[in-house]
Amino acid sequence: MDLGIAGKWALVCGASKGLGHGCAQALAREGVNVVLVARRAEVLEQAAAALRTESGVQVLAVATDITTPEGRAQALAVHPDLDIVVTNAGGPPMGNFRDWDREAWIKAVDANMLTPIELIKASLDGMLARGFGRIVNITSSAVKAPIDILGLSNGARSGLTGFIAGLARNPEVAARGVTINNLLPGKFDTDRLASIMQNVASQNGQTLAQARAAQAKPIPAGRLGTPEEFGAMCAFLCSLQAGYLTGQNVLLDGGLYPGTF
Ligand code: NAP
Asked: What values do phi and psi take at 180, rounded to 5?
């Protein structure tokens, strides 16, 4: 299916690996030019070079911390007329709520709520003026079913989810060709999940393979998701065909969430 977005420009954050990279790759395969953001320049450059070779689209890379005002300014300056923005940054650390002080909370809210909001604020008016825009926020299944050890994520991302629910439905936005949706990963095979599994394994005296099998066991699909599967859904949310889909929380979890709706 031709998604109708070839030639458009996308900013994809947290894009050197994992889910952000899956989104960038899927968009580039659709002919979308991409601006990739991540902090480590070397890893990012490698990812950008591979994507350039594979897709033939324009792939620009900005090595910066997207959770800082300077980082966002740098990322947004690369291509002023963005059609697509995929917000993403590293998730907050695991832990016990007793250990999180105000600074830990501010950091989580900054990265996983305020950074996406600032990126949207900076790019939305241009999209509205041009009559087309797609914003996809990578959040987490934790906003639908909280994860006990990830309280910072449960809290900070829920704030973003509430804000998006209102903004996406604002007629000034929804009636002018701009959709805003959240993409909620369940358990995906990325370095982030591997480091969480390593922690769980150490705590429970398990091997990494045992911790991994335990993570996959309750998933009806019987396995972790792949960044490619995640990217494919992201590209669809950015497509012309998805123009009537807005304000939604799209859960990708292999059937793990047990509710009927
Ligand atoms: P990952 O494999 O660790 O990849 C994270 C990517 O984001 C990397 O490219 C990383 O590169 C970049 N990044 C991290 N912090 C950044 C920052 N401050 N500024 C710019 N780039 C930054 O993680 P992932 O599994 O893809 O997870 C992506 C998001 O989805 C996270 O918020 C995570 O909590 C959430 N999530 C993931 C899962 C899962 O199963 N994987 C489940 C639920 C939620 P640098 O380190 O070089 O910056």
From this structure: -135, 120
**Does this model's pTM top 0.85?**
yes
Distance CA 79, CA 34 (A): 9
> What is the whole-number distance in angstroms between the Cα of residue 225 and the centre of ligand 1?
15
Write out the two tokens for 173.
């936005």
DSSP H or E segment with residue 228: helix 227-237
The span from the CA of 143 to the CA of 94, in Å, is 15
CB atoms within 10 A of CB 78: 15
How far is residue 198's CA from residue 100's CA, in Å, rounded to a whole number? Answer: 21
Q: What is the pLDDT of residues 54-82, one digit of tens each?
A: 999 999 999 999 999 999 999 999 998 99
Q: What is the pLDDT of residues 198-243, one digit of tens each?
A: 988 998 899 988 988 999 999 999 999 999 999 999 999 999 999 9
Please list every protein residue whose CB sits less than 6 Å from any atom of ligand 1.
13-20, 37-40, 43, 65-67, 88-91, 138, 140-141, 185, 187-188, 190-193
Atom of ligand 1 nearest to the CA of 43: 47
Query: Are the beta carbons of 87 and 115 closer than 8 angstroms?
Result: yes
